[in-house]
Amino acid sequence: MVRRWSPPEVGAPLAKYHHLAAAPADSELLFIAGQVGTDATGALVGDDAAAQARQIFANIETLLASAGSGPEHLLRLFTMVAGTEHLAGFRSTLDEVFAAWFPGGDWPANSLIVAAALAAPEIVVEVEAVAVVPARPAG
């Protein structure tokens, strides 16, 4: 369904991502707003990047499921981390989640920036996503 690749004419990706991702013509694009580490009640789950990222990825999986999609349909992630001190915690959680979601290493395109701050001082990670909603049968 989703096709992801990195052509050899461009330098290899620096982390767990591919340079390109394409959606099939018979599908819809799904844009997921920036997710932060809040649970269903709106409470932030922790003050560290690992805990917040774990919740973010759980939220993304729930949002994808609500649209009839799943992690295997992710085209792109855009990750924001508030300060370099939070990179290790985020990356360790990303490794765990990607091992479960993409055991074959077929990762989506991903960009990561380090920002001075996010929307509130206690938020240390935010992730946006673009995914594909598989074509639904006619009828």
Task: Give an overview of the whole structure.
- Belongs to the RutC family.
- GO terms for molecular function: deaminase activity.
- It comes from Nonomuraea deserti.
- This is RidA family protein.
- Helix 1 (49-66) runs parallel beside helix 2.
- With 139 residues, the protein is α+β, with helices and mostly antiparallel strands.
- It contains two helices and six strands.
- The protein has a single domain, classed as RutC-like (60s Ribosomal Protein L30, Chain: A, 2-Layer Sandwich).
Spans with pLDDT under 50 lasting ≥5 residues? none
Helix content: 10-25%
Whole-number count of domains: 1
Overall average residue pLDDT: 95
The biggest sheet amounts to: 4 strands, mixed
Question: Going by CATH, what is the homologous superfamily?
Answer: RutC-like
Please give the radius of gyration in angstroms.
Answer: 15 Å
Distance, first to last CA: 21 Å
Secondary-structure-based class equals: alpha+beta
Give the SSE order as H and E letters: EEEHEHEE
CATH topology category name: 60s Ribosomal Protein L30, Chain: A
* Order of adjacent strands in the largest pleated sheet: 3-6-4-5
Instruction: Please tell me the CATH architecture by its name.
Output: 2-Layer Sandwich
Q: Output the number of helix runs.
A: 2
Give the gist of this structure.
It comes from Nonomuraea deserti. The protein has 139 residues and is an alpha+beta fold.
